[in-house]
Known about the structure:
The complex is a heterodimer. Chain A is an alpha/beta fold. Chain A has 12 helices and 9 strands.
Amino acid sequence: MTAPRPAARNEVRADIHTLATPLVRLANEPYYHATGDEVEVFAAAAGSRLPVMLKGPTGCGKTRFVEHMAWRLKRPLVTVACHDDLTTADLVGRYLIVGDETVWMDGPLTAAVRAGAICYLDEIVEARKDTTVVIHPLTDSRRALPVEKRGEYIEAPPDFMLVISWNPGYQSVLKEMKPSTRQRFVALDFDYPQADTEARIVVHEGGVDADTAQKLVKLGGLTRKLKGAGLDEGAGTRLLVHAAQLIASGMAPATACTAAIARPLADEPDTRDALDDLIRAVF
Amino acid sequence: MSERKLFAHELEARLDELLLLSLRQRSAAEPAALLEALPRETQDRVLHWAGVAAQTSDDLGWLIASLAAERASGLGAQLDDWVRAGLDAYDRSGLAATRKALNEFAETHAARVRHSQEGIDFATVEGRLSRFLQALDGRALKLASGPKAWTDSETLWLPERLDVAPDVVGNQRLYKVMAALLWAQTRFGSFNIDPEPELELWPDRERGLRWFAVFEAMRLEACIGVELPGLARDIALLRGPWPGKLAAVAESLARPRATAADSLACMAELRRVGAGDTPIIPHIGVMDPVAARRVRAARIARELAVVRRALNVIAATDTKPGAAENSDYPPLAAEGELQVPDPQADLLALPPAAREAAKSLMQDLGELPPEALHAAGPGAWQPVDGGDESMTPGVTTQPDAFYDEWDYRRGSWRHGWCHLYEMTAPVGRHEWVDEVRTRHAHLIRSIRRRFEALRGEDKPQKRQFDGEEIDLDAQVDARADRMSGAEPSPRLFIHRRRIERSLAVMFMVDMSGSTKGWVNDAERESLVLLCEAIEALGDSYAIYGFSGWTRTHCDIYPVKRFADRYDAATRQRIAGIEARDYTRMGVAVRHLSGLLMRQNTRHKLLVTLSDGRPDDYGDEYRGRYGIEDTRRALLEAREKGIRSYCVTIDRHGADYLPQLYGPAHYSVIDDAKKLPQKIAEIYRKLTG
């Protein structure tokens, strides 16, 4: 048996480069159906170099909207899914050791600032409060990111834009956004689209016929009436699209809705059974 | 008599003796072998009946003995009735008929047993059905069990048990379809027309009502089919095809624009040609239009008042020059025409509860009546007048604190207006909490489990000055910093510690006179469940009751201070929470916010448990004045960093809640009995 060959330095460097933040450049237009003046407001905020906050229930199209706007504004996009273990170093960057050398690795926020990209911090309230303060200097007139470890002060180029999202429907007192953070952003309220618009989205994204899409939207509407009565949230458009995609692949509608809508939404038996009854009632 | 079971040879001997079998060349070995397996009591019953039957005829005795040996275990307590049925048949038609009657009785009984095993209780489907109904369109409906399936247009009553279908799934489906049809009666206008003029023409009113229910079921099934085709399919499967002569009527009532008037027209036609009895269809309940229309009339009056009040608030809050300075400005504008938004054109102009009331009115009347668009007078909402002299405390001591109150009419404060007293909380029966804990033991266990999961395990805190483990990431960073010439951080360890939620919660419990009865019981039970749950979490919490009688006697009852433990004394004070006087809420919010601010925690939460809006003796605090003062008090709390949340049991008066608490910061529970189950879940969501 032979011992494994130690990695050569250049291979390690290559490995490190795979850790670098990916800057997504969207070549094709991500489908997004505007329901109000959100496109104009976002474009105006981008033109005025103002950060934007998107508020709305889960699965109603916030992330897709950011992708669409990144494509429309022809800027690269960096997305960070926030969580409670996210540290400042995770956002800004850190030194890594390669052999007996150190290599600085930009975090996603720093990479976005350097590249003049849109940095999208999804579900910002999930992150620790001491982590999110790092964005403050980027959201006021300074538009800069201090990188203490390197003694660097990166001024953001005109194309850099910070976008955050959160769901005000979460009632947790422990997951509130501080006024000092909130008041730095231009805010856009998102909600589920009107039924006919939502049906068009489901047809386009899910690949089903209009009748099936309308039934899925009807089902979505029924589940949303259970918010606070067994469900934290009703089914978002995303879930309806998932169900549509399963149906388009040949699955029976009721089975698809159970797998893509009912089971992800509820564990509690009464609520789960009621969702099954609703699926059976609609299809 | 010995209690041991008889063995086969003993049974054989006894049967031989009773039936003289040896003389007739018969052997009792086979039935004796079967009887050996039965309990002694059953063996004795069989021997007894074999003897009784043998007195009529030896052959009858043998038949009873041999069949009883086969059937007794299945018949159980029905054994005596089974034998009597056989003896009756013998008296009527002889031995052959006896065998047939005994077998039929046994089969029927077995089928009934099978059915009752497949039957289900209402309690097993209640949660599932209530959620199902809540998701459907139309006004919110309550669900209850009763002897028959019917609705008064606000509550759906369903049978306490169903064992009609041959299996559990079938019975569950029957419950669902019954509930759906009753929902459809309220949703698609079965009670929007008075059937009495037609019913009076029927010689048998009950039969007329049964036909009305059948015709409405035909019409409603079609209405359901438009929105929920799957549900309509379930209904059609359950009822089977309509009898031939009714198929044409069913088709005509399935027209898209058919109404209850068309069902009455079908009744009139049937009356002319002569009505037989209705077909038996399992999912069609009974109709009581008199009760339903009485409830409907009360609802219309109530909801008209809610809509008009809301329009009034909109009108009154329009900026009028000098309105704020006018101290005579009444809480609610006088009756008359006002320039208000047209709710038919834009329901969104109304607050949520008024919007629901407007939708409900349109469901009952087809449109918003013109009088809904007029400004309201004092409104329909009247508090329970707790004018019991014995409850009025004599004010003999100095108040513990004075609080300012906000007068929106003046646009200024009334300084030192409210006199606050911290009273001694009364104690209740110490056994009461134990009873609640026993009654809800299962719920408490599951809540505690969920809350413990919320607390989580010890969490590794990275990059600490000291700790139980070395933080490799920090070591790597420090080494990298050192090599790059930077100052390395000394935070190189992982310390495992319990997550500090850093949360203090104040529960402000409404002890107004209107909470007397169910609401008060529900509040107390909820607090027991909450305490059990929060103890598992380790959050800091306090419970204070509030009540009062005018601004000079605003009372606060400390049930559990932050420093108190959840011990026997606290439990007795929870048991002692009782309905008292009125709810001058602003002063209670201010006082309890102050107590909450003394807690050295990062998050602070004020949760109000209430059954209605702010109100006090006399007219001043009622209506907009009280709401504005309370809203101001909650805003002050908010400015101090206190989050407020309200859980209210007030189905018809919750229109003020969005004004007070903002969207997503309140829960309306339509039934006090549900509060204990819901409260822990609400708390989990609030602090999860």
